[in-house]
Structures are given as C-alpha cells and as structure tokens.
Amino acid sequence: xxxxxxxxxxxxxxxxxxxxxxxxxxxxxxxxxxxxxxxxxxxxxxxxxxxxxxxxxxxxxxxxxxxxxxxxxxxxxxxxxxxxxxxxxxxxxxxxxxxxxxxxxxxxxxxxxxxxxxxxxxxxxxxxxxxxxxxxxxxxxxxxxxxxxxxxxxxxxxxxxxxxxxxxxxxxxxxxxxxxxxxxxxxxxxxxxxxxxxxxxxxxxxxxxxxxxxxxxxxxxxxxxxxxxxxxxxxxxxxxxxxxxxxxxxxxxxxxxxxxxxxxxxxxxxxxxxxxxxxxxxxxxxxxxxxxxxxxxxxxxxxxxxxxxxxxxxxxxxxxxxxxxxxxxxxxxxxxxxxxxxxxxxxxxxxxxxxxxxxxxxxxxxxxxxxxxxxxxxxxxxxxxxxxxxxxxxxxxxxxxxxxxxxxxxxxxxxxxxxxxxxxxxxxxxxxxx
Length: 434
What we know:
This protein is α+β, with helices and mostly antiparallel strands. The chain folds into four domains: 3-75, no CATH class; 92-184, VC0802-like (2-Layer Sandwich); 187-314, 2-Layer Sandwich (Alpha-Beta Plaits); 319-429, Alpha-Beta Plaits (2-Layer Sandwich). The protein is 34% helix and 25% strand. It is built from 14 helices and 14 strands. Strands 5, 6, 7, 8, 9, 10, 11, 12, 13 and 14 form a ten-stranded mixed beta sheet that branches. A four-stranded mixed beta sheet has the order 2-1-3-4. α3 (34-54) packs across α5 and α9 (229-241) crosses α10. The radius of gyration is 34 Å and the shape is elongated. The two termini are 56 Å apart. The model is unreliable at 70-80 (pLDDT under 50).
C-alpha cells in the first residue's frame, strides 16, 4: 500500500488534522514536523482529487472537502474546518498548554525539564483505531508529538532546556482533567553527621501503637522520641530549598543509646519538591549545627545524585566501636585479653537479635570481626572498655552478650560468664567508595 493509499484510507474515517495525518508517517522523511508532513500529503491528495474531478470522478475530492484546508486553498474551495476525529484539534492548543506549563514552573528554580502527557480515554482509543485501520508501520504515538511540540514552546518561554534522561522537573499534561501536574525531582545533599548525645534515634520513629496518628502511648505526639538526627537536620534544609519535606538516608545506623563520634557517619538528606536548587552548603551546615548545637553536627556537605542513595544503602563498610562492658562476676585481664584475641578475626553467625525481632526479619547473618582489643579495665575486674572493628551489619551488643546463643561466638561464651554492654560509641565508619 502506498503512502497516498494509506492517507486516503485515513481520510475515509473523517476529518483529520495535518498533525495526525503526518504523525502516521513520522519515521519517513526526517527533518519535517508532522504538520508539514501531513500538509504535504494532503496537498498531494488534493492534486490527485483535482485530477480525478477533471477526469469526471470526484470521489477523493468529496472526502477531502470537509477536512483539508490545504485542499480547499489549493482548489479554490470554501468552508470551515471540522474538528479532527483523532485528536479533537488538540494541536491548536499547543501554545496554551505551553503557557500553562511555564506558569506552573515559575515558582521553581530549575535548569532542565521534561514534558509528559496523560491522554484521555477517547484519545487513546482513537489512536488505536487509527493504527489498526491504517496499518501504517511508520507512526509515532500522539504523546510523543505533544511532548515534543509543547516542550519546544516551553523552552522558548522559559529559556530552560528539555532533558529526556535526568530532568529536574517533569510537567505532566493531564488532558483528562485539564490541568498541569508537576513532578519536582529531589535535591540530594550528602555529608557526615556526628551524634554527640545518647537517646536520639537516627530517623523519625512513629509510635508503634498508633502509627503516627497520636495516642495516649505516645502522649498524642505520634512518635516515640521527641527528636532525631533526621529531624534536627530537616528544618534548615526545608528553609534553604523551599522544600515540602525531607527524607533521610544513612549508611547504616547506630542504636538510640549510642553516640556517633570520630569523623561521623555518611548520610544523604533528600529535599522533597524543592522550590530552590541553588543552595549555599556552607551556610546550610552552619544553620544545622547552630540549630542542633550540642546534639549533632554535620560536616563535608556536598551535592549528590539519586544513585548515590542506593550505593549508600547497599555498600557495607567496616565500623569501629568503643564499648564499656560490665561482667556478671570479676574477670582477669589475662582471661579477657585471651577471649578478645579469639573474637578478633572470628567469623560470626548471628541471628536477628531478640531486641529487634519485632521490627526485623528473623535471619542468620555471617559477619567478620576484624579486631577486638582491650583499652582499659577497672582494678576489680568488674568492667572494661574494649574496641571492636567489624564488618558493617554486625550487632555488637549481641557480640558481647551472646543473646542466649543467637550470636556465636560471643564474648560471654568465650569468657564463660555473662557480659553486657553498658555504654556504646561508634568511633569510625569507613568511607564509601565513590
């Protein structure tokens, strides 16, 4: 079937605009807009129709008359355009949609954008009918043309550029509800935090009784703890970015009763639906540290990507802990050093600790202890300060207590007497590979 035969078949369904005609042949004769391609095809058909009329057959011309401005202009015919049966003349509204997108984007800082389209059910159905009826193999979807044509106009209106892979904001043309829906991509800010006090969790902890709604168990606050590292960082980020909220991503986490010392734990804070993207990170760090003085501090802030969050979560790095350990009965320094020597370098089999089974799957983990050393101990042998370097993901409290045999080997098992962590500090989290 020739191009003109296919075009003639399309015209047989009813009035069709230049865009919808040309779009059925979008993969042919590149360098043209679909409206130019469609107009050229209609003009060729109009000429064919005039030839048929002069030879006594006006069938094609009768099909062209109600739907082709080019046919009428070329042949001196009069009359008004009828709506395109495929798109309902939506391509006459490209400038209007572009203006609405530009207006919606005016509240946001951005350099790159992308246009998307949500079709009405009728448009999607009409497109399927066109493709099934015409049998054309060279068409492109109506969404593609709408996105491209509106995008070109938005580029001119805003001076920004369209980006098909990593746009900072996506404007969705919701044709069903006649509105613009914006998807504003997050800003990601990486750094390290030090937690200087005990009793603060890393992230917001909704009340386990009410799920955050507020109840007598949580004092109607909706959360188990008054503040967190996440919430101490959040206000300054929200102000700086004009964001609606933040999401916090840490490289592992420390217990609530543990401090995070040394050079801190890597984290990424995600600013959700930011209105501003140009942020002074030095000023942001100052603001966070001033707000959270004495509780946490952040260092080394820099911009990150969405992919960095996944790497942060998936990469397991070594950690160094300092623990104050109490013994049920006095232990000698020699016995303690001998036990730590065995524990250092051990391969540990560890089932999910009893204390976190209510929120963690009951799994067995295999982790390595790199080093276990004695720093100091009291003269009576009732307590000691020890340092442990181990693979990320190892529960070090249970490495000491044994958790009733769920962690093996353990310091308790090696000593033959119960041992328990009384104070815990994380003093180093190794750097992630960039």
